[in-house]
Structure formats: structure tokens, C-alpha cells
Amino acid sequence: MSKKTKLKLTPEQHRERQRQRALEANQAKEMAHSDCEMELRVKGGNYGLYCQEHNKWITWLSPKELEKLSKAGIDL
Question: What residues contact 53, with CB distance under 8 A and at least 6 apart?
Fold first, then answer.
């Protein structure tokens, strides 16, 4: 049997790898729900997009995103 060798990553490489994996996971999640109806929901003071069809949270919104929605006239 052969042993798997672990790659030695620098902290910067590790952060970049984690960031890339998170980005890929978010893209896959968005594609899976691209045809679903979303709703803006509040949970514990945080705002996020919720997929009604699959009963799943899709993403949480940052304060900057909330500010943009507010300026666009969307009631929060």
C-alpha cells in the first residue's frame, strides 16, 4: 500500500486554498438554486437569502449589501 503524502502549504497558500474552496462551494450552491424563488429573511438580527423551495439558507448579506438594498428602496 502506498501512503498519501501531505502537501506542505504555507499559511498564505492554505488561506488561498480555503478561499477557493469556499468560492466554489458558494457557486455550486447558487447554481443549484438559480431557478428557485428566494426571499429575504431575518434570523437573530442577520439578513439572508432563503430558498423557499428547498427550505435552505443560501447566503448571509453583509452590511454593505444591506445598505445597497436599502438605497434601492427595498424595505428591510
Answer: 33, 36, 37
